[in-house]
């Protein structure tokens, strides 16, 4: 039996039918989030997943599945797009890139301003899987390359659409950095007053600007992200420009990240009932049916899930199986009329989808949902929707201690082009 404790995090006020959402922190502060379809508490505006025929997608540094999608503009670094679609038919897909501001609004720059090479590229003839009656095709594309190169640093969104129909299949965010200047950062651990064992993390950065940044107090900004949740980036509004060379950037008091954030993990790289995360397996079904070990609330105080450890997600081989995996969860409390529990995680890029809403299971007190996922190793989490807002941590009563991952981003508002450049990115481990 798997023991799960879902931990405290700010609430997301998410009007489902509108393009604007609000994040409410534990201290009651509010930050607007505009644009996009408000599909997720974790993803940036504009990140999109269409569903069928898409089975899985990932964008990460080449050879490092699951790592943050960051590359340096002048270095010999590449990102690899990986995705799989259901069925035997091969389709051609069009890949387009768009440049964005730090808040993920469009920079409105034309492609020729931030791209060298082709404005769009085409991907076809995905590899058909082997040794399984459930058929799927696997596609991958590595960039930059001779067809596509980046002239401008910053936030980017990769859009993949069907070349024949024009329908958008999915989008994924990534970052292009210049690695300019000198950046160092740490994370303060703060015990919040008036709360029992609630920890707040407050990233702090010091940055030495390159010579071309003449007025850092006007043209520099720093954002922080927790656990690769790019839709929840926070700007450092406490700044210090008193030094002659070095500038300081901190989040405001009370506006830090939840240091108690936690998730569960499921390891189904090996399809065997001997595996601790698998309760039962039906290998004769197409696809293979799995019964994932039960998740029980309030007992997940030592999961071993560490966000600084990168999980690979889906296995990349075409002889790996897709499964219909049933997750079962005992919330430990009554789910009231009008409330719904959702499952989200690495397997769907932390999107909140109607198809992943739990329903009553056969076992008393349990709710369940079946997810089509490939053999792999994933993080996941249950959240609650009460009809008006998503509560990301409604089931906890004790706090786990999972180490958090942070990224610091230094942006430069170029006065000549009036566009944002990403000067530097640094990965930082949270306090242990």
Automatic annotation (TrEMBL):
Ranges where the AMP-activated protein kinase glycogen-binding domain occurs: 337-388
Descriptive protein name: Uncharacterized protein
Superkingdom, natural source: Bacteria
Record organism: Rhodohalobacter mucosus
Xref: CDD domains: E_set_AMPKbeta_like_N (cd02859)
Family matches, as InterPro entries: AMPK1_CBM (IPR032640), Ig-like_fold (IPR013783), Ig_E-set (IPR014756), T9SS_Plug_N (IPR031345)
Residue intervals of the Type 9 secretion system plug protein N-terminal domain: 65-177
């Amino acid at each position: 039996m798997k023991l799960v404790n879902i931990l405290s995090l700010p609430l997301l006020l998410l009007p489902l039918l509108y393009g604007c959402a609000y994040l409410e922190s534990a201290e009651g502060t509010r930050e607007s989030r505009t644009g996009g379809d408000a599909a997720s508490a974790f993803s940036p505006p504009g990140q999109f997943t269409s569903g069928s025929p898409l089975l899985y997608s990932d964008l990460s540094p080449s050879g490092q599945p699951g790592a943050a999608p960051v590359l340096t503009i002048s270095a010999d670094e590449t990102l690899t797009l990986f995705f799989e679609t259901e069925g035997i038919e091969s389709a051609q897909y069009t890949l387009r890139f768009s440049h964005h501001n730090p808040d993920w609004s469009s920079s409105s720059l034309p492609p020729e301003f931030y791209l060298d090479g082709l404005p769009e590229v085409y991907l076809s003839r995905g590899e058909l899987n082997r040794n399984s009656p459930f058929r799927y095709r696997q596609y991958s594309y590595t960039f930059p390359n001779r067809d596509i190169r980046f002239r401008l640093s910053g936030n980017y969104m990769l859009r993949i659409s069907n070349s024949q129909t024009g329908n958008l299949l999915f989008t994924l965010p990534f970052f292009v950095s210049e690695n300019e200047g000198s950046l160092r950062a740490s994370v303060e651990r703060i015990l919040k007053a008036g709360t029992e064992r609630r920890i707040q993390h407050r990233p702090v950065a010091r940055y030495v600007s390159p010579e071309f940044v003449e007025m850092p107090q006007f043209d520099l900004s720093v954002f922080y992200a927790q656990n690769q949740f790019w839709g929840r980036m926070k700007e450092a509004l406490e700044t210090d420009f008193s030094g002659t060379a070095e500038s300081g950037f901190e989040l405001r008091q009370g506006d830090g990240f939840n240091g108690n954030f936690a998730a569960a993990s499921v390891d189904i790289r090996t399809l065997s009932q001997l595996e601790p995360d698998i309760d039962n397996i039906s290998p004769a079904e197409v696809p293979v049916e799995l019964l994932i070990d039960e998740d029980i609330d309030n007992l997940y105080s030592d999961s071993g899930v560490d966000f600084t450890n990168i999980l690979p997600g889906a296995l990349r081989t075409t002889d790996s199986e897709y499964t219909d995996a049933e997750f079962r969860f005992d919330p430990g409390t009554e789910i009231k009329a009008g409330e719904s529990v959702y499952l989200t995680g690495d397997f769907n890029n932390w999107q909140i989808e109607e198809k992943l809403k739990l329903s009553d299971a056969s076992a008393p007190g349990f709710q369940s949902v079946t997810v089509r996922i490939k053999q792999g190793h994933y993080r996941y989490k249950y959240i609650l929707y009460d009809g008006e807002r998503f509560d990301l941590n409604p089931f906890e009563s004790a706090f786990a201690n999972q180490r958090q991952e942070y990224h610091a981003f230094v942006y430069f508002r170029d006065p000549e082009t009036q566009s944002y450049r990403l000067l530097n990115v640094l990965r930082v481990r949270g306090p242990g």
